[in-house]
Please model this.
Amino acid sequence: MQIDKLLELCIEKGASDLHLAVGTPPVVRLHGRMRALNTPPLTPEDTLSLMKQITSERCQQEIAETGGTDFGFSYGDRGRFRVSAFKQKGNIGLVLRQIINKFLTLDEIGFPNAIRNLLFKPRGLFLVTGPTGSGKTTTLATMVDFINTETDCHIITIEDPIEYYHTHKKSVITQREIGVDVGSFQEALRRALRQDPDVILVGEMRDLETISAAISAAETGHMVFGTLHTTGAAETVNRIVDAFPTQQQEQIRAQLSTGLLAVVSQALVPKMDGHGRVAAFEIMVNTPAIAHLVRENKTHRIVSEIQTGARHGMVLLDDHLFKLFKQKKIRYADMMEVAADSVVLQKRIREEGLLAKGGVSKGGGGGGGGAAKAKAKGKAPASR
Model:
């Protein structure tokens, strides 16, 4: 089996991910759903061969020594893929994430103007959060491309691996890959401060040292973008504070209260028509009221501030999901899968008369169809 044919299929169909594992045919994630290809199950020899077709000697050595490796590669001018290759049950497995060549605009990803204006700030920490596969990388790439197009500055991105390739526009952009250009995120951040940066993107704030360095960089006059695998603005603040020893947490809350610009927490939901996915956002902007809650360790009240902060561009995830459902862009079952409080959201929908008995939307956004039911039962939909 040749990897080229599988990559072509992903690009042609718009699949977000390709899964290659021994004992099952190749599986693609299409519009959020897993679909097995109509081919024989892969053998250990198949996955080993497919891995070697795209993996450098250095990365193959890393698999042998540590059991896994991550890297990105370009498939000609057709597209880019981020790859995780790993050992499982003694065999090779791979997951390839397709990275769309074309940058989206802020309008296309649904960002309000209030958030757009924050991108011109000279300093601060801007976090994009959400679970794996929620589109964080695409959102960050869109924001970096906007800054690159609209302002003249030096942008440094630190990624593992590099996913979107940026070209110099009004800005000069430097992209450094962990394991290729520099050893670690904290080392790259330390070096970045000596490279005259205006904007720094940290691909993943995964440990105490990286989080601390990012906060310090934001405090010392740089615009810093970063990601965390958290859901919700309040949870994000708590996760950052909890990463530090108890004796430092009061200081970190004080630093966040002044240095944090905004938190965007997002999820991707399949569209009503089954073609593609739409992003649902929770957006928190660090107003004086939010800053007070962060500093005084009253993050449980952040939700209330977001509810009343629409004029600043703030919105709760469930409010945005409700809006998308009301506009008949998403189905009821898909919305409930990612809702922060599904009970309250369901009650709200019923009160507005948008949901009939049995969980069926009156606007055609019903229970999610066979694919959603199969997923709920733990079964993959049959391939066609």
Notes: Residues 68 and 86 are 4 Å apart (CA to CA). The chain has 15 helices and 15 strands.
